[in-house]
Amino acid sequence: MTFDFDSEVDKFGINSVKWEFQFDADHNATFGDHAHPKHGDERLLPMWVADMDFRCPPPVVEAVVARAQRGVFGYCMPTDSYYEAVISWFARRYGRSIERDWIVTTPGVVPAVNLLIQTFTQPGDKVLIQRPVYHPFTNSIENNGREMVSNSLVLQNGLSPRRRGSRYQMDFDDLAAKVADPALKMAVLCSPHNPVARVWSAEELTRFGEICLDNDVLVIADEIHCDLLYKDVTFTSFANISERFAQNSIVCTAASKTFNIAGLKLSNIIILDEEMRIQFSET
Questions:
Q1: pTM score of the predicted model
Q2: Which residues are in the Aminotransferase class I/classII large domain (predicted)?
Q3: Is 14 domain-assigned?
Q4: CB 128 within 8 Å of CB 187
Q5: What is the CATH classification number for the domain harbouring 242?
Q6: pLDDT in tens, 149-205
Q7: Using CA of residue 77, residue 80, residue 86, residue 90, what is the dihedral sign?
């Protein structure tokens, strides 16, 4: 199926967070007048949020329109076909077998990360992230009364396979030292990594997973960008590395980045362990 990536799309007048959201002089969040970009200059490109400027694929638009024409917008549950689509997608694209019972839907990955922190850690516990990283992770940790610990990525020269330049690497010695702290209960893995664009190799994921497993640290894998890859790049889901990793991790995914439907507010949280799944669902 081909797609039109050339036609310009009118991005104003829809309360676009990316294009119209702004702060006033008192730092209060407001929206613009729906006629001009928030920066006041159409030449400026807002690159601060992962929101594409292409139209959604026609089948997505058609499905949304057909549902809207029913004229009923009350409470609803995911359909059988929804679960089948999620399961089929990961089986076809990544060779991962997912059972329906493992999928817990939430209104977004960020709300899910907050709930996971509340469910599987206690106030005062430490949660590890790998800076520079998606800033809501820090907010989710600190707003819930936990302590953020950074296993900062290291920028090394001459490692980029695409061009001469630098590439971010994990600092495994630092990781091992920090997860050895008994107060550190959880590690958030961003894979592919936002914003440094690293698609972690199976070898890197294995080292990360073994260190966390050896120290009884639960891994939360945010894999929301897994479909946005160059043709010659292979994505490996953290849970696909081994059954042990699958049991010691919770994978967060969504169709929002892939099909530009973040405004529909739906994500899939994949939890193999039944007891953990029940705990999370009851939070």
A1: 0.91
A2: 52-276
A3: yes
A4: yes
A5: 3.40.640.10
A6: 999 999 988 656 555 568 999 999 999 999 999 999 999 999 999 999 999 999 999
A7: positive
